[in-house]
Task: inverse folding
C-alpha cells in the first residue's frame, strides 16, 4: 500500500489582502515527482470549508511537481481575518513539508517538499 503523508501549516493573512501566494518547491532527496492534494481553510472556522486555490488562474485541488520544480499557488482569502491553514497530502512517500513564512514581497510562504 502506498504511503500517504499529510502536512499542515498556518500562514498569516495580511490586513486588507484578498489573495495569499504560496510557493511550493520539490526538493526531495529521492529526486522524484510528487503528487500533492491541497486544501486551504480559515483557521478560525469551525466548518473548515475549503478556500479556492488557483494555479495560473485555474482552480485546482491537486498537482504534480517534478523534481526541482517550483510553482506559485494563489489562495482566495477575502473572507479570512487572521490565518489560513494550508494542508498538503503527499502520495507515495515523502517526509513532510518545510515552511518559511515571508512578510515582504508577493510570496507569503515558501514550502519545500522533503
Result:
Amino acid at each position: 500500500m502506498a504511503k500517504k503523508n499529510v502536512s499542515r501549516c498556518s500562514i498569516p493573512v495580511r490586513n486588507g489582502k484578498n489573495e495569499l501566494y504560496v510557493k511550493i518547491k520539490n526538493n526531495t532527496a529521492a529526486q522524484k515527482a510528487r503528487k500533492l492534494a491541497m486544501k486551504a481553510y480559515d483557521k478560525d472556522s469551525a466548518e473548515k470549508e475549503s478556500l479556492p486555490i488557483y494555479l495560473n488562474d485555474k482552480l485546482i485541488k491537486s498537482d504534480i511537481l517534478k523534481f526541482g520544480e517550483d510553482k506559485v499557488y494563489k489562495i482566495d482569502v477575502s473572507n479570512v481575518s487572521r490565518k489560513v491553514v494550508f494542508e498538503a497530502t503527499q502520495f507515495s512517500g515523502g517526509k513532510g513539508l518545510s515552511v518559511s513564512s515571508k512578510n515582504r514581497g508577493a510570496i507569503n510562504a515558501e514550502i519545500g517538499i522533503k
Q: What stands out?
A: The CA atoms of residues 103 and 109 lie 8 Å apart. The beta strands are 4-12, 19-26, 34-42, 53-55, 58-60, 62-65, 70-76, 83-91, 97-101, 109-113. The first strand starts at residue 4 and ends at 12. The chain has no helices and ten strands.
